[in-house]
Amino acid sequence: MALDPYNSRIDRSGTNAEKYVLRRKLFGTESVQPMWVADMDIATPACVLEAVAERLTHPLLGYEIMSDASYAAQIGWFEHRHGFSMESEWLSYSPSVVASIGCAIRALSDEGDEVIVMDPVYPPFYSMVKENGRLLLLHPLRQDGEGRYRFDIDELRARITPKTKILMLCSPHNPVGRVWSREELGALGELCYEHGIRIISDEIHCDLVYAPHRHIPTASISDALRENTVMLIGPGKTFNMAGFSISTVCIPSAELRALYEAERMRVHWGEGAVLSHVALEAAYRNGGEWHMGLMEHLARNAAILERWAKTQEKIGYHPPEATYLAWLDCRAIGFGDRELREFFVRKAGLGLSPGLSFGKEGSGFMRLNFAVASSALEEALERLGRAL
Ligand SMILES: Cc1ncc(COP(=O)(O)O)c(C=O)c1O
Protein backbone atom coordinates (compact mmCIF):
# COMPACT_ATOMS: atom_id res chain seq x y z
CA MET A 1 0.00 0.00 0.00
CA ALA A 2 1.28 3.49 -0.83
CA LEU A 3 2.40 5.53 2.16
CA ASP A 4 -0.18 8.08 3.27
CA PRO A 5 1.78 11.36 2.99
CA TYR A 6 -0.48 13.10 5.50
CA ASN A 7 -0.32 10.42 8.17
CA SER A 8 3.43 9.75 8.25
CA ARG A 9 5.04 10.73 11.52
CA ILE A 10 8.08 12.68 10.39
CA ASP A 11 10.86 13.27 12.88
CA ARG A 12 11.75 16.96 12.72
CA SER A 13 14.72 16.68 15.05
CA GLY A 14 17.93 17.66 13.33
CA THR A 15 16.13 20.59 11.70
CA ASN A 16 15.70 23.98 13.33
CA ALA A 17 11.92 23.71 13.37
CA GLU A 18 10.80 26.56 15.63
CA LYS A 19 7.88 24.57 16.97
CA TYR A 20 10.28 21.99 18.42
CA VAL A 21 13.49 23.91 19.07
CA LEU A 22 11.84 26.61 21.19
CA ARG A 23 10.02 24.21 23.48
CA ARG A 24 12.40 24.57 26.42
CA LYS A 25 12.37 28.35 26.19
CA LEU A 26 8.60 28.59 25.93
CA PHE A 27 7.29 25.70 27.97
CA GLY A 28 10.27 25.04 30.24
CA THR A 29 10.61 21.48 28.95
CA GLU A 30 11.35 19.61 25.76
CA SER A 31 8.99 16.80 26.58
CA VAL A 32 5.78 18.50 25.40
CA GLN A 33 4.13 17.51 22.13
CA PRO A 34 4.31 20.86 20.32
CA MET A 35 1.02 21.96 18.76
CA TRP A 36 1.57 25.70 18.66
CA VAL A 37 3.38 27.38 15.68
CA ALA A 38 1.10 27.38 12.61
CA ASP A 39 3.06 25.12 10.31
CA MET A 40 2.24 21.49 9.58
CA ASP A 41 4.03 18.33 10.66
CA ILE A 42 3.15 17.12 7.16
CA ALA A 43 5.68 17.01 4.33
CA THR A 44 5.69 19.85 1.81
CA PRO A 45 4.29 18.48 -1.49
CA ALA A 46 6.64 16.34 -3.56
CA CYS A 47 6.13 18.60 -6.60
CA VAL A 48 7.74 21.47 -4.64
CA LEU A 49 10.65 19.39 -3.35
CA GLU A 50 11.29 17.99 -6.82
CA ALA A 51 11.24 21.42 -8.49
CA VAL A 52 13.76 22.74 -5.96
CA ALA A 53 16.01 19.68 -6.41
CA GLU A 54 15.84 20.13 -10.17
CA ARG A 55 16.82 23.80 -9.89
CA LEU A 56 19.82 22.79 -7.78
CA THR A 57 21.20 20.80 -10.69
CA HIS A 58 22.13 24.19 -12.13
CA PRO A 59 25.22 25.49 -10.32
CA LEU A 60 24.42 29.19 -10.35
CA LEU A 61 22.31 30.65 -7.58
CA GLY A 62 22.73 34.39 -7.97
CA TYR A 63 20.13 37.14 -7.78
CA GLU A 64 16.91 36.22 -9.47
CA ILE A 65 13.56 37.90 -9.81
CA MET A 66 10.10 36.38 -9.66
CA SER A 67 9.42 35.07 -13.16
CA ASP A 68 6.27 35.85 -15.11
CA ALA A 69 5.58 32.11 -14.97
CA SER A 70 5.59 32.16 -11.14
CA TYR A 71 3.07 34.98 -11.00
CA ALA A 72 1.02 33.31 -13.73
CA ALA A 73 0.83 30.12 -11.65
CA GLN A 74 -0.40 32.08 -8.64
CA ILE A 75 -2.89 34.07 -10.71
CA GLY A 76 -4.20 30.83 -12.24
CA TRP A 77 -4.62 29.24 -8.80
CA PHE A 78 -6.55 32.23 -7.49
CA GLU A 79 -8.77 32.43 -10.51
CA HIS A 80 -9.58 28.74 -10.37
CA ARG A 81 -9.96 28.43 -6.59
CA HIS A 82 -11.40 31.76 -5.59
CA GLY A 83 -12.91 33.15 -8.78
CA PHE A 84 -10.76 36.26 -8.54
CA SER A 85 -8.76 37.47 -11.53
CA MET A 86 -5.61 39.26 -10.44
CA GLU A 87 -3.48 41.22 -12.86
CA SER A 88 0.26 40.73 -12.69
CA GLU A 89 0.98 44.43 -12.12
CA TRP A 90 -1.07 44.27 -8.91
CA LEU A 91 1.37 41.78 -7.40
CA SER A 92 4.68 42.14 -5.65
CA TYR A 93 7.02 39.85 -3.76
CA SER A 94 7.32 39.98 0.02
CA PRO A 95 9.46 37.82 2.31
CA SER A 96 6.64 37.55 4.83
CA VAL A 97 3.04 38.52 5.29
CA VAL A 98 3.91 40.14 8.61
CA ALA A 99 6.60 42.25 6.96
CA SER A 100 4.03 43.39 4.39
CA ILE A 101 1.59 44.26 7.17
CA GLY A 102 4.20 46.60 8.67
CA CYS A 103 5.02 48.07 5.28
CA ALA A 104 1.35 48.64 4.41
CA ILE A 105 0.62 50.21 7.79
CA ARG A 106 3.44 52.71 7.26
CA ALA A 107 2.39 53.36 3.67
CA LEU A 108 -1.28 54.01 4.43
CA SER A 109 -1.23 55.89 7.71
CA ASP A 110 0.79 58.31 9.81
CA GLU A 111 2.19 57.94 13.29
CA GLY A 112 -0.57 58.50 15.84
CA ASP A 113 -3.33 57.29 13.49
CA GLU A 114 -5.70 54.56 14.64
CA VAL A 115 -5.79 51.06 13.24
CA ILE A 116 -8.79 48.81 13.88
CA VAL A 117 -7.81 45.35 15.10
CA MET A 118 -10.37 42.71 16.00
CA ASP A 119 -9.61 40.85 19.21
CA PRO A 120 -8.73 37.94 19.34
CA VAL A 121 -6.34 37.71 16.40
CA TYR A 122 -2.89 36.58 15.25
CA PRO A 123 -0.50 38.43 17.65
CA PRO A 124 1.59 40.39 15.09
CA PHE A 125 -1.54 42.34 14.16
CA TYR A 126 -1.12 44.13 17.49
CA SER A 127 2.65 44.38 17.47
CA MET A 128 2.89 45.74 13.91
CA VAL A 129 0.50 48.57 14.81
CA LYS A 130 2.32 49.40 18.03
CA GLU A 131 5.89 48.98 16.72
CA ASN A 132 5.07 51.40 13.92
CA GLY A 133 3.79 54.09 16.30
CA ARG A 134 0.11 53.76 15.41
CA LEU A 135 -2.72 53.36 17.93
CA LEU A 136 -4.80 50.23 18.38
CA LEU A 137 -8.53 50.65 18.08
CA LEU A 138 -9.67 47.31 19.44
CA HIS A 139 -12.94 45.74 18.46
CA PRO A 140 -13.99 42.53 20.22
CA LEU A 141 -15.19 39.55 18.21
CA ARG A 142 -17.95 37.83 20.17
CA GLN A 143 -19.60 34.44 19.84
CA ASP A 144 -23.27 34.36 18.85
CA GLY A 145 -25.78 31.80 20.23
CA GLU A 146 -24.32 29.14 17.93
CA GLY A 147 -20.75 29.83 18.97
CA ARG A 148 -19.82 31.63 15.73
CA TYR A 149 -17.63 34.66 16.16
CA ARG A 150 -19.05 37.91 14.83
CA PHE A 151 -18.10 41.55 14.66
CA ASP A 152 -20.69 44.22 15.45
CA ILE A 153 -20.81 46.73 12.65
CA ASP A 154 -22.79 49.36 14.62
CA GLU A 155 -20.47 49.15 17.59
CA LEU A 156 -17.53 49.49 15.21
CA ARG A 157 -19.09 52.49 13.46
CA ALA A 158 -19.59 54.23 16.81
CA ARG A 159 -15.89 53.85 17.67
CA ILE A 160 -14.47 55.27 14.43
CA THR A 161 -12.83 58.71 14.65
CA PRO A 162 -11.23 60.97 12.02
CA LYS A 163 -7.90 59.43 13.08
CA THR A 164 -9.02 55.90 12.09
CA LYS A 165 -7.15 55.07 8.89
CA ILE A 166 -6.80 51.29 8.57
CA LEU A 167 -8.78 48.15 9.30
CA MET A 168 -6.74 45.00 9.81
CA LEU A 169 -8.75 42.04 8.62
CA CYS A 170 -7.85 38.39 9.12
CA SER A 171 -9.75 36.42 6.48
CA PRO A 172 -10.12 33.49 7.08
CA HIS A 173 -9.56 34.16 10.72
CA ASN A 174 -6.75 32.89 12.90
CA PRO A 175 -7.46 31.79 15.65
CA VAL A 176 -11.29 31.57 15.60
CA GLY A 177 -11.51 29.82 12.21
CA ARG A 178 -14.24 32.00 10.70
CA VAL A 179 -14.69 32.30 6.94
CA TRP A 180 -16.36 35.68 6.63
CA SER A 181 -19.46 35.68 4.43
CA ARG A 182 -19.98 37.95 1.47
CA GLU A 183 -22.56 39.91 3.52
CA GLU A 184 -20.21 40.36 6.46
CA LEU A 185 -17.33 41.47 4.24
CA GLY A 186 -19.63 43.74 2.23
CA ALA A 187 -20.88 45.52 5.36
CA LEU A 188 -17.36 45.93 6.68
CA GLY A 189 -16.14 47.16 3.29
CA GLU A 190 -18.91 49.72 3.01
CA LEU A 191 -18.21 51.08 6.47
CA CYS A 192 -14.51 51.45 5.66
CA TYR A 193 -15.15 53.03 2.30
CA GLU A 194 -17.57 55.60 3.80
CA HIS A 195 -14.98 56.66 6.36
CA GLY A 196 -11.87 56.60 4.16
CA ILE A 197 -10.44 53.62 6.03
CA ARG A 198 -8.11 51.36 4.05
CA ILE A 199 -8.30 47.61 4.52
CA ILE A 200 -5.27 45.38 4.98
CA SER A 201 -6.68 41.93 4.37
CA ASP A 202 -4.47 39.05 5.49
CA GLU A 203 -5.69 36.06 3.47
CA ILE A 204 -2.83 33.67 4.10
CA HIS A 205 -5.26 30.93 5.26
CA CYS A 206 -7.52 31.31 2.22
CA ASP A 207 -6.89 27.85 0.77
CA LEU A 208 -7.54 26.00 4.02
CA VAL A 209 -11.34 26.26 3.93
CA TYR A 210 -13.77 23.42 4.67
CA ALA A 211 -16.87 22.81 2.53
CA PRO A 212 -19.47 24.21 2.34
CA HIS A 213 -17.68 27.44 3.25
CA ARG A 214 -16.00 29.48 0.55
CA HIS A 215 -13.32 32.07 0.85
CA ILE A 216 -14.24 35.43 -0.68
CA PRO A 217 -11.19 37.58 -1.51
CA THR A 218 -11.89 40.98 0.05
CA ALA A 219 -10.90 42.86 -3.10
CA SER A 220 -13.35 40.79 -5.17
CA ILE A 221 -16.51 42.01 -3.43
CA SER A 222 -17.05 45.32 -5.20
CA ASP A 223 -15.24 47.96 -7.25
CA ALA A 224 -15.02 50.11 -4.14
CA LEU A 225 -13.38 47.33 -2.14
CA ARG A 226 -11.00 46.51 -4.96
CA GLU A 227 -9.75 50.09 -4.85
CA ASN A 228 -9.54 50.15 -1.06
CA THR A 229 -7.81 46.89 -0.19
CA VAL A 230 -4.29 45.58 0.23
CA MET A 231 -4.52 41.80 0.06
CA LEU A 232 -1.80 39.58 1.49
CA ILE A 233 -1.59 36.06 0.14
CA GLY A 234 0.98 33.32 -0.28
CA PRO A 235 1.78 29.63 -0.44
CA GLY A 236 3.27 29.39 3.09
CA LYS A 237 0.26 27.89 4.87
CA THR A 238 -1.40 26.15 1.93
CA PHE A 239 1.63 24.05 0.98
CA ASN A 240 3.51 24.09 4.29
CA MET A 241 6.39 26.10 2.90
CA ALA A 242 6.76 28.92 5.44
CA GLY A 243 10.47 28.14 5.43
CA PHE A 244 10.74 29.50 1.89
CA SER A 245 9.90 32.95 3.20
CA ILE A 246 7.82 34.02 0.24
CA SER A 247 4.45 35.72 -0.05
CA THR A 248 2.63 38.09 -2.35
CA VAL A 249 1.08 41.49 -1.89
CA CYS A 250 -1.87 42.16 -4.18
CA ILE A 251 -2.90 45.82 -4.58
CA PRO A 252 -5.35 46.50 -7.42
CA SER A 253 -5.51 50.27 -6.76
CA ALA A 254 -2.77 52.21 -8.58
CA GLU A 255 -2.90 54.87 -5.87
CA LEU A 256 -2.45 52.47 -2.94
CA ARG A 257 0.14 50.55 -4.90
CA ALA A 258 2.25 53.66 -5.39
CA LEU A 259 2.10 54.43 -1.66
CA TYR A 260 3.00 50.85 -0.76
CA GLU A 261 5.80 50.61 -3.31
CA ALA A 262 7.36 53.85 -2.05
CA GLU A 263 7.47 52.37 1.45
CA ARG A 264 8.77 49.03 0.18
CA MET A 265 11.64 50.86 -1.54
CA ARG A 266 12.60 52.35 1.83
CA VAL A 267 13.19 48.91 3.31
CA HIS A 268 14.52 47.35 0.12
CA TRP A 269 13.82 43.70 0.72
CA GLY A 270 14.47 42.91 -2.91
CA GLU A 271 12.90 40.22 -5.04
CA GLY A 272 13.47 37.14 -2.94
CA ALA A 273 15.40 33.92 -3.28
CA VAL A 274 15.64 31.74 -6.34
CA LEU A 275 14.60 28.50 -4.62
CA SER A 276 11.53 30.23 -3.19
CA HIS A 277 10.46 31.46 -6.62
CA VAL A 278 10.79 27.94 -8.00
CA ALA A 279 8.90 26.46 -5.02
CA LEU A 280 6.05 28.95 -5.34
CA GLU A 281 5.57 28.24 -9.01
CA ALA A 282 5.64 24.46 -8.55
CA ALA A 283 3.15 24.62 -5.66
CA TYR A 284 0.57 26.74 -7.44
CA ARG A 285 1.03 24.98 -10.76
CA ASN A 286 1.19 21.35 -9.66
CA GLY A 287 0.04 21.21 -6.03
CA GLY A 288 -3.72 20.91 -6.65
CA GLU A 289 -4.04 17.19 -6.07
CA TRP A 290 -1.84 17.26 -2.98
CA HIS A 291 -3.94 20.13 -1.61
CA MET A 292 -7.15 18.16 -2.12
CA GLY A 293 -5.70 15.27 -0.14
CA LEU A 294 -4.55 17.68 2.54
CA MET A 295 -8.02 19.15 2.99
CA GLU A 296 -9.50 15.66 3.33
CA HIS A 297 -6.91 14.84 5.97
CA LEU A 298 -7.48 18.08 7.89
CA ALA A 299 -11.26 17.58 7.76
CA ARG A 300 -10.79 14.08 9.23
CA ASN A 301 -8.67 15.53 12.03
CA ALA A 302 -11.23 18.27 12.69
CA ALA A 303 -13.87 15.53 12.98
CA ILE A 304 -11.69 13.53 15.42
CA LEU A 305 -11.45 16.66 17.54
CA GLU A 306 -15.17 17.28 17.35
CA ARG A 307 -16.01 13.73 18.45
CA TRP A 308 -13.53 13.96 21.29
CA ALA A 309 -14.76 17.40 22.44
CA LYS A 310 -18.32 16.04 22.66
CA THR A 311 -17.13 13.64 25.36
CA GLN A 312 -15.47 16.44 27.34
CA GLU A 313 -17.66 18.45 29.66
CA LYS A 314 -15.08 21.12 30.21
CA ILE A 315 -13.99 21.85 26.67
CA GLY A 316 -16.06 23.91 24.26
CA TYR A 317 -15.24 23.41 20.59
CA HIS A 318 -16.80 24.70 17.39
CA PRO A 319 -15.16 23.15 14.32
CA PRO A 320 -13.28 25.82 12.37
CA GLU A 321 -14.67 26.85 8.99
CA ALA A 322 -11.05 27.24 7.86
CA THR A 323 -7.46 26.74 9.10
CA TYR A 324 -5.93 23.78 10.92
CA LEU A 325 -6.24 25.58 14.21
CA ALA A 326 -8.70 24.49 16.88
CA TRP A 327 -9.85 27.17 19.29
CA LEU A 328 -10.58 25.33 22.50
CA ASP A 329 -12.80 27.02 25.04
CA CYS A 330 -11.33 25.94 28.36
CA ARG A 331 -13.16 28.41 30.58
CA ALA A 332 -15.24 25.69 32.24
CA ILE A 333 -12.07 24.18 33.73
CA GLY A 334 -12.04 27.24 35.96
CA PHE A 335 -8.33 28.09 35.77
CA GLY A 336 -6.74 31.48 35.30
CA ASP A 337 -4.67 31.86 32.10
CA ARG A 338 -1.35 31.08 33.75
CA GLU A 339 -2.71 27.97 35.50
CA LEU A 340 -4.36 26.85 32.28
CA ARG A 341 -1.10 27.01 30.39
CA GLU A 342 0.71 25.16 33.18
CA PHE A 343 -2.01 22.53 33.20
CA PHE A 344 -1.54 21.87 29.47
CA VAL A 345 2.25 21.66 29.83
CA ARG A 346 2.62 19.80 33.12
CA LYS A 347 -0.47 17.60 33.24
CA ALA A 348 -1.22 16.96 29.56
CA GLY A 349 2.31 17.26 28.12
CA LEU A 350 1.09 19.56 25.36
CA GLY A 351 2.58 22.79 24.03
CA LEU A 352 -0.31 24.89 22.74
CA SER A 353 -0.71 28.62 22.09
CA PRO A 354 -2.40 30.32 25.04
CA GLY A 355 -5.58 32.13 24.04
CA LEU A 356 -4.50 35.26 25.86
CA SER A 357 -1.59 35.69 23.42
CA PHE A 358 -4.23 36.51 20.77
CA GLY A 359 -5.68 39.34 22.84
CA LYS A 360 -7.80 39.71 25.94
CA GLU A 361 -10.86 38.11 24.32
CA GLY A 362 -8.78 34.96 24.10
CA SER A 363 -8.58 34.59 27.86
CA GLY A 364 -9.57 31.06 28.92
CA PHE A 365 -8.95 29.58 25.44
CA MET A 366 -6.11 27.51 24.01
CA ARG A 367 -5.23 27.13 20.31
CA LEU A 368 -4.31 23.65 19.12
CA ASN A 369 -2.65 23.04 15.75
CA PHE A 370 -4.10 19.80 14.33
CA ALA A 371 -2.05 19.67 11.10
CA VAL A 372 -0.39 16.45 12.22
CA ALA A 373 -0.79 12.74 11.56
CA SER A 374 -4.15 11.57 12.94
CA SER A 375 -2.39 9.21 15.32
CA ALA A 376 -0.44 12.15 16.81
CA LEU A 377 -3.67 14.07 17.31
CA GLU A 378 -5.36 11.08 18.93
CA GLU A 379 -2.45 10.65 21.33
CA ALA A 380 -2.59 14.33 22.28
CA LEU A 381 -6.33 14.18 22.90
CA GLU A 382 -6.02 11.04 24.94
CA ARG A 383 -3.45 12.70 27.16
CA LEU A 384 -5.56 15.82 27.49
CA GLY A 385 -8.65 13.75 28.28
CA ARG A 386 -6.76 11.92 31.03
CA ALA A 387 -5.42 15.17 32.46
CA LEU A 388 -8.90 16.67 32.51
C1 LIG B 1 -3.02 35.27 9.89
C2 LIG B 1 -1.54 35.05 9.67
N1 LIG B 1 -0.83 35.95 8.99
C3 LIG B 1 0.48 35.79 8.77
C4 LIG B 1 1.15 34.69 9.26
C5 LIG B 1 2.63 34.58 9.02
O1 LIG B 1 2.94 34.80 7.71
P1 LIG B 1 4.47 35.01 7.28
O2 LIG B 1 5.22 33.85 7.82
O3 LIG B 1 4.42 35.06 5.80
O4 LIG B 1 4.90 36.31 7.90
C6 LIG B 1 0.45 33.74 9.99
C7 LIG B 1 1.15 32.58 10.57
O5 LIG B 1 0.68 31.91 11.43
C8 LIG B 1 -0.93 33.92 10.19
O6 LIG B 1 -1.66 33.02 10.86
CATH architecture type of the largest domain: 3-Layer(aba) Sandwich
Radius of gyration using CA atoms only:
21 Å
Percentage of residues in helical conformation: 25-40%
Could you describe the largest sheet, including whether it forms a barrel? 7 strands, mixed
CATH superfamily of the largest domain: Type I PLP-dependent aspartate aminotransferase-like (Major domain)
What do the pLDDT scores average to?
97
Description:
The chain is an alpha/beta fold and 388 residues long. It contains 14 helices and 14 strands. It has two domains: 127 residues, Alpha-Beta Complex (Aspartate Aminotransferase, domain 1); 234 residues, 3-Layer(aba) Sandwich (Aspartate Aminotransferase, domain 2). Helix 4 packs parallel to helix 11, helix 5 packs across helix 6 and helix 5 packs across helix 10. The longest helix has 23 residues. The two termini are 38 Å apart. The mean pLDDT is 97. The structure holds pyridoxal-5'-phosphate. Pyridoxal-5'-phosphate binds next to helix 5.
Quick take:
40% of the residues lie in helices and 15% in strands.
Please write out the topology.
Elements: H1 18-21, H2 23-27, E1 33-34, H3 46-55, H4 68-82, E2 91-94, H5 97-108, E3 114-119, H6 124-131, E4 135-140, E5 142-143, E6 149-150, H7 153-159, E7 164-170, H8 182-194, E8 198-202, H9 223-228, E9 229-233, E10 247-250, H10 254-267, H11 274-286, H12 288-310, E11 325-329, H13 337-347, E12 350-351, E13 353-354, E14 365-369, H14 374-387
Parallel strand pairs: 1-12, 3-4, 3-7, 7-8, 8-9
Antiparallel strand pairs: 2-10, 5-6, 9-10, 11-14, 13-14
The chain binds pyridoxal-5'-phosphate (PLP).
